[in-house]
Each structure stands twice: as C-alpha cells, then as structure tokens.
Amino acid sequence: MFRESVFVLLLLAAFVSLVPLNSEDHSKYPRPLTELEKDKFIVGGSTAILGQFPYQVALRTAAGTFFCGGVIISNSWVISAAFCTINRSNPTTFRVVVGTINSGSGGIVFSLNRVVNHPQYNANDVSNDVSLIQVQGTFTFSGAVNQVSLGSAFIGANVNGFVAGWGATAAGGQPVTTLRWFQAVTITNENCRQRFLDMGQLFAFLAVHDHKICTFTRNGTQSKILGFCQEDRGGGFVTNNVLHAVVSWNIPCGRASPDLYDRISWHRIWITSVTGL
Ligand SMILES: *[C@@H]1O[C@H](CO)[C@@H](O)[C@H](O)[C@H]1NC(C)=O
Ligand SMILES: *[C@@H]1O[C@H](CO)[C@@H](O)[C@H](O)[C@H]1NC(C)=O
Question: What is the pTM of this model?
C-alpha cells in the first residue's frame, strides 16, 4: 500500500513537471483542456433582479469593459480574486461598479484607491486567489448596494450558498449582460480531490489546497451540473449574508468537475491586516 502510494506520487510528480500549469491560455483556465472545452455544457442558473445580490460588484476596465466580479465587504472595500487583479495593481486601470445587474452599463462607478493582491498568489496553481480593492469615497448602502459580513468558520460539506456573476453560461462562451445566479453545494476537499483524480485531472487534484473549498452541484435529478464560468471569478459564495468563499477557478465550467473557491476563514487574518475589518 505504502509502495503504491509512493509510486502514484512519483507518477504525479513526473506528470506535473512535464505539464506547466500556466502554459498557453491562462486567461481561460488554469490549464487548457481542449477536448473538454469543446463540450458546450449549459451551466444552468437563473437571472437575478436588482437588489437580490446587493453585495455583487462588477469590475470594469477604465474603458468600461466588464471582466470580473467582486463582493462588497465594507463601505469602501471589495474582495475579489487575485486572478482578476494581479496584472491590474495600478488602481487607475479599472473601476468597481455597484448597484447594477448589468455587466457593462449603469450602476455607480467608483475609481480606486488601492488594489492589494494576496502576496502568495501563485498563477501556476491559482493558489491564494484573493485580492482586496479599496474604492475612492464610500458606498452609500441601499436596497441595491450593501455589504456582506466575512465568515470566519471553516465550512464543511453540504453547505448551500448563493453564487452570482456575469460569467458565460457555457464553457468558452461570452459573459452575459444580466447578472445570473445559482445555489452551489459544498463538498469536502477530499471528495473534491478524488473527483479530479477519477477524471484524470492530476494538476487540479494537486491544486485543491486546504485553503480552497469546492462545490459540486446538480440541479435536482437532472444530470446537468450547475457551476460558475470564467468571468464569474471574484464573486462570492454567500449564505445568510455571510461571505464564506471567493470564486476562484474550474476546468471548463458546467462540466462534471467541481468548482473551486478560496476560503474566507483561511484568509481572514490577511484580510484584517490589509483592511482593518
Ligand atoms: C433547474 O432546472 C429547472 C428545469 O430545467 C429550471 O427551471 C430551474 O431554473 C433550474 N434551477 C437552477 C437553480 O438552475
Ligand atoms: C499577467 O501578465 C503576465 C505577463 O504578461 C501573463 O503571463 C499572465 O498570464 C497575466 N495573468 C493574468 C491572470 O492575466
């Protein structure tokens, strides 16, 4: 048994060293999987109405192009994914937009004070995929704009949470105009690793660090898998107005593989150190 484990580990090590995780098109997935990308699986979910997710923000470039989501955690701070902001540390390069369900228009547009990427963000395996964004001025809370509180409890399996975003509804698709949402269900990290292993996705198996949490969600008895897509990154996994995790990555969305998020409980001390929250 021990010898077998060692053998498997050696195989994994060999595989990983042969396939750099961020080769080629890192903007799409942590690693391209061409044959799976061709599978345009529907991700499911429903269209949101204004005020349903008042904590949800859109990140737009200075030119007004939507590129990622984020979550309001105080009257001046937003949390997002480092993937979204790692090449945008200069706060003049993008904006935070609150109070809208439209990805590219409307809402209240805020210029930025600071963009702080997690110092241990690693693009190779998308670890520590969180960033903090401070706007200039403060948000005025209303029915359409509000904050969530930050979770500090470790979340286990079978927890239901809302995930909202403007990501595509199929792998390789375009972001949508109107905010969409679904309810995701957590699984254990062990279950998550096993699923990737069973699918032969060894790089993903190795990237399920303890600071990640996975969801794997089916719509009732249907075989369809609900999940987030690329431009949903930076959004939140929220239960009862508490943010537990930030949308990180998956291998082609809506397919039979888990979605990965970064745990707020894990990053709580870093968040406090930057924001004082
Ligand atoms: C689940 O599937 C049903 C039937 O297709 C659909 O009406 C419903 O919106 C789906 N639920 C979610 C959360 O996507
Ligand atoms: C950030 O920029 C570097 C250098 O141009 C590039 O290799 C990398 O893919 C970019 N990362 C993201 C997440 O866009």
Answer: 0.83
